[in-house]
Amino acid sequence: MPSGYRQLTELRGVLARARELSLRTLIFDVEPLVAWWDTSQQALDEGIAGLLAQLDQIPEARVVVFATNSARRPSAVPSVPGVRVSYLASAGKPLRTAPYQGLPRPGAVIGDQVPTDGLLAYRLGFTFLHWDPRLAGVPPGPRLMHLLGRLARPLFFRKDGS
């Protein structure tokens, strides 16, 4: 199944696109979309709660997964009526896909990195909503991954968004 691609710079644009696509599954990258790299436990918990508070904008959503390749975990995974919410630490994106098998379609991976989030979307046959704002203070590792992603994107996603 071909993967779609959309580059967005604001969270409200990501949520609007998710609504337009009637997404049933949303897989959110944690850093930096939910919480900035190396921030506090409180920042992570508040980021998850804040994002889930906006979920009413996507009425078709049935599953939300927060996925990070880091080992950090929230204090608790909040519940949302009618939506299965889970958190996957040390996710192994894009290599590990087993945790995402059987999730309702259509789905999307929302994240900032083509080499991890984009390739996970591609492997799952999900849309990649590439959250790509101009960010200051990005650590060297993610900055390098972003540059690699600029080179890799044309290999997996066409300019017309498919």
Overview of this structure, please?
It is built from 4 helices and 6 strands. Helix 3 (114-124) links the parallel strand 5 (107-111) and strand 6 (127-131). A 6-stranded parallel beta sheet has the order 1-6-5-2-3-4, with helices on both faces. It has helices at residues 11-20, 41-53, 114-124, 140-156; strands at 5-8, 25-29, 63-67, 84-88, 107-111, 127-131. The protein has one domain: Rossmann fold (3-Layer(aba) Sandwich), CATH 3.40.50. The radius of gyration is 14 Å and the shape is globular.
Concise overview:
With about 160 residues, this protein is an alpha/beta fold. The chain has four helices and six strands; from the N terminus they run E-H-E-H-E-E-E-H-E-H.
The strand line-up of the biggest sheet is 1-6-5-2-3-4
| Euclidean distance between termini CA atoms | 11 Å
What is the architecture at the second tier of CATH?
3-Layer(aba) Sandwich
Helix content: 25-40%
Low-confidence stretches: none
Order of helices and strands: EHEHEEEHEH
Number-wise, the strands total: 6
Question: Which of globular, elongated, flat, extended, rod-shaped describes the shape?
Answer: globular
Secondary-structure content class: alpha/beta
Question: Over the alpha carbons, how many angstroms does the gyration radius reach?
Answer: 14 Å
Task: Work out the strand percent.
Answer: 15-25%
Biggest β-sheet: count, sense, barrel? 6 strands, parallel
Mean pLDDT: 89
